[in-house]
Amino acid sequence: MPSRPNVLIIGGGIGGLFAANALTAQGLRVSVHEQASALGEIGAGVFVTPNAVRHLERVRLGAAVEKWGARVGPGSCYLRHDGTAIAPVQVSDASGWNATFGMHRADFIDLLAAKLSAGIVQTGHRAVGFEQDDDVARVTFANGATAEADVVIAADGIHSELRPHVFPPSKPVFHGTICYRGLVPRERLPGWPMDRWQMWAGPSRHFLVFPVRHGTMVNYVGFVPADEEMKESWSAPGDPAVLRREFEGWDPRIGQVLEQVDKTFRWALYDREPLPTWTRGRLTLLGDAAHPMLPHLGQGANQAIEDGMALATILARVDTAAVPAALLAYERLRRERVAQIQLGARQNGLRLDSTATDLGARDAQLAAHAEFRRQLYSYDVMPAARAAAAGLT
Ligand SMILES: Cc1cc2nc3c(=O)[nH]c(=O)nc-3n(C[C@H](O)[C@H](O)[C@H](O)COP(=O)(O)OP(=O)(O)OC[C@H]3O[C@@H](n4cnc5c(N)ncnc54)[C@H](O)[C@@H]3O)c2cc1C
Hints:
- This protein has helices at about 15-25, 50-60, 60-70, 105-115, 240-245, 250-260, 300-315, 325-350, 360-380, 380-390, and strands at about 5-10, 30-35, 45-50, 70, 75-80, 85-90, 100-105, 120, 125-130, 135-140, 145-150, 150-155, 175-185, 200, 205-210, 215-225, 235-240, 265-270, 280, 285.
- It is an alpha+beta fold.
- The strands form four sheets. Strands 6-5-14-15-16-13-18-17 form an eight-stranded mixed β-sheet.
- About 45% of the residues are buried.
């Protein structure tokens, strides 16, 4: 009798934990191995959009997203650095579904982990080795443990330890941008609109604000140029006074937020070229391990969620013998879409930081960008994944 594949996920970030939810919802056996001694995330926000929220709903996490998220609505907008309005920001899909939420990252990790049965997530397990044969894949951990499965999903982020087992190693490229991020309690910003996402654009830098944690906190991100290279994905405490100077002379509303900042963190932005392949045998990559992208479309985590739903949909429909073909089908389904979004994020970053003297053309592009977002948000990976799986059986 054909047997259903069991799955080992390396990495308990948003991507790995969502994939675990999607796979268990399909009745597959899963374990998640995370290097840290406890699950967690930094004190900053993440923007979750309809193309991912539809999958969160499918694994019965819609109510938790509503509870912990802060829905942003049609008041969301792009502004020039002086506060002049440029254009509304698209927050709904083509059907008008406004499922766009600001989330505190720690809340997001908590709600994804809370749905998994005890024992699925094993912390303190840093993957350091991988091998496979025709029958099984095997991961070894720094603590001396080993684990075997029919499928290994490396969801271990931009520094992925397992990525060199599917593609020759390469270094991510520093993008020349640092971002400052942090949170401000709502009561310290009386009158701040908690129903919208606002982005002040250029020159050479941009500033983003959106609400999180059911509108009780405001998340800010200031993107500034930097020639100093920081270790990628590495956060360092930043100086709030330096951050305030970076945005001196901008819209006084930004000053209102920055006056309340007494702690901030700096992040270096890194990029990678799209990979031509990210699967080998029983091992595949997911999320930032496969396709890290600049944050200028707010899609890294959303695309990791699409990856997880695609993989779960395909793996649920095959037996263990078909695993290598199933993983290649997942990769084929995802590669082109994420490559387009990686490119789109780069282009949007150039618009947001434009130094053009006549900003009219840039503003028109930002206004026209609503259509790109509408299509991005309307995409549903599940029917395509079902069709891909049907081609395997
Ligand atoms: C400034 C900024 C703003 C952003 N804003 C948004 C946004 O609004 N919306 C959005 O969708 N995306 C956004 N992103 C991108 C998003 O944060 C990432 O794409 C997403 O978190 C990737 O999730 P992941 O699970 O693939 O990787 P990660 O979050 O990096 O998780 C990887 C996990 O694997 C673990 N790990 C690593 N190595 C090992 C190992 N060897 N063994 C075991 N475990 C290991 C790590 O500890 C970690 O828990 C933003 C990024 C930045 C930098």
